[in-house]
Amino acid sequence: MKKLIGISMIGAIVFTSPLVEAEASSFADVTSTHWAYEEINYILEEGIITGYSDGTFRPTETISRSQTAVMLDRALDLDDVTEYREYNDLDESHQNYDAIQRVGEAGVMTGGSDGTFRPTETLTRAQMSAVLTRAFELEADRSVEFKDLNESHWAYEEIAPVVTNYISTGKNDGTYSPSEHVSRAQFSIFMARALNEEFRSSSTNETFYGGDWSFDGISIGDPLEDVQRFHGDPEEILDSEYGFRWYVYHDDWDQYIQYGIEDGIVVAALTPQERWRASGEISKGANKTDVREQYGSPESIIVKDGMRYRIDNGHKDLFSVNDHLVTFYYDTHNDNEVSSVFIIDEAVENAYDQYYPDATGAIRSTYETQIVYLANAIRASHDLDSLERLDDASETALNHSRDMARHNYFSHTNREGLSPFDRMDADGVDYRSAAENLARGQVRPLDAIEGWLNSQNGHREALLGNYSHTGVGIAFDESRNNRPYYTQLYYTLP
C-alpha cells in the first residue's frame, strides 16, 4: 500500500409584406421621440434598411439571418461572387440568395459546419457581434467582462471588439445577454455605430472595466437577487464564522465560487480559480510581483480583540483596497502566480472581533465541507478528478483532530503510537493507497488548503495525488482560543 504523509501549520421570422422606401419620420411606429430614431433614419438614408408597405418600420420585430445578410451586403457594397456556395437549406429561388452568397464569399456569414445557412433563424446578440466584427474588421484592445459572459463563451473573441469599439455596450444590469434576439431597432443602432463613430457610446455597462472587484460579474454590495439571477440556486448554503451565509456554487468543480450574503447583500467572495477581476492591471495570470506593484506593501498584522496576529506573507498577501480587505494566495510552485482570492467588506471583517471561530457544530460542519469543496476546486484547476467524501474515513479524521486538540499535540502518530494508516485499518476503512494532511491554527479552510498546496513536505503531493476518496475532520482547541486542527485523509478504494 502506498502511504504518504504531509504536515503543516499552516427562436425565426420572414418578411410577409413587401418593403418600400420611406422617410423615418413618416413611420407610424417610429416618431422623433423613439429611442432609436436617429440611427434608424441614418441607415435608412444610407439605403441599408427599409420600411413596410403599410408605412411602419416595426422596430421591435426581430432580424433573421437572411435579412442580416441583405443589410450587410448593402452596407459593405460587396462585389458579385465568383463561385457560389451550396447550402442544404437554400437555393436560387430564395429572395436573398445573391446577398447571402456575397456575404459568404466575404467571410462575414458563412453558414454552419453542417452545410446549412439557416436563413430564417433569428439573429442573436452574440451572432450580431460576430458578423459586425468580421464585416468591419474590428479589433479589441482589452478584455471585457459582463455578468453572463467570460472568455469561455464561443463568441467572446468577436463580442469583445464590438464592446471595446463602443458599438455594443451591454445591458444596464451588467449583462451582455448573448443569446437574446436582436430587434430591427437594435440592429439599426449597431449598424449605425459601426458605420459612423458619431453614433457610438462613450461608455459600456461592463461589470469590471473601469470598476472595482468582480467575482463572476458579482461585486461586493450587489444584491442577492443578482447572484441568483445570473448563477441560479446555490449547490449549498453554509454558515460562516462571520454570521453571514456562504452561497456556494460548484455545479462544475472548475467553476467554483462562494458569495458571503448578509441581509440580502454580497459582503464577501472567495474563489480558488480565475473567476475574479480587479480594478487596475491585476487579473488572471498575475503573480505576487504584479500584485505588490499595484497595491504596494501588504499588511503585516491583523488586530482582533486587542491582540495582534502576525500575517505570514510567504504565500499570501492581505491588502486594504477601497473599503475591502483582499487576500491574495500565491502558488509558490508556479512562479508565485495568484492561486486563490478572498475578499470581504472591511466593515464586516472589523465587526468580527475575534481571530478564531466559535467552536460550534455548524461552523465545524462548514469548515469540513469547505475543505472538501476547496480541495476539489484546486484539483479541478490541475485537471484532476474530484474526491468523494465518505463517512467512515471522516470519522477517523475527526477522531484524530479531536485527540490533538484536547491533548495539545500535533503529529500524524497519535498518543498510542498509531499512524493514520493504523487508525484507518482499526476503523475498518478499506483502501489501496492513502495519504494524510494535517494543519493547525489556520484561521480558515482556504488557508489550510493553500498551505498544503504550497508545502515542500509532501502536502501538495497528497492534495494533488491520484486519489478518489477523502475523509475530513476538524476540531477546535477550546482551551487555546478555539484554534482549529485539520485532518484530511486521501485514499483510493481497493
UniProtKB/TrEMBL annotation:
<feature type="domain" description="SLH">
    <location>
        <begin position="142"/>
        <end position="205"/>
    </location>
</feature>
<feature type="domain" description="SLH">
    <location>
        <begin position="23"/>
        <end position="86"/>
    </location>
</feature>
<dbReference type="Pfam" id="PF00188">
    <property type="entry name" value="CAP"/>
</dbReference>
<dbReference type="InterPro" id="IPR014044">
    <property type="entry name" value="CAP_dom"/>
</dbReference>
<dbReference type="InterPro" id="IPR001119">
    <property type="entry name" value="SLH_dom"/>
</dbReference>
<protein>
    <submittedName>
        <fullName>Uncharacterized protein YkwD</fullName>
    </submittedName>
</protein>
<dbReference type="Pfam" id="PF00395">
    <property type="entry name" value="SLH"/>
</dbReference>
<feature type="domain" description="SLH">
    <location>
        <begin position="87"/>
        <end position="141"/>
    </location>
</feature>
<keyword id="KW-0732">Signal</keyword>
<dbReference type="Pfam" id="PF14504">
    <property type="entry name" value="CAP_assoc_N"/>
</dbReference>
<dbReference type="InterPro" id="IPR029410">
    <property type="entry name" value="CAP_assoc"/>
</dbReference>
<feature type="signal peptide">
    <location>
        <begin position="1"/>
        <end position="22"/>
    </location>
</feature>
<dbReference type="InterPro" id="IPR051465">
    <property type="entry name" value="Cell_Envelope_Struct_Comp"/>
</dbReference>
<dbReference type="InterPro" id="IPR035940">
    <property type="entry name" value="CAP_sf"/>
</dbReference>
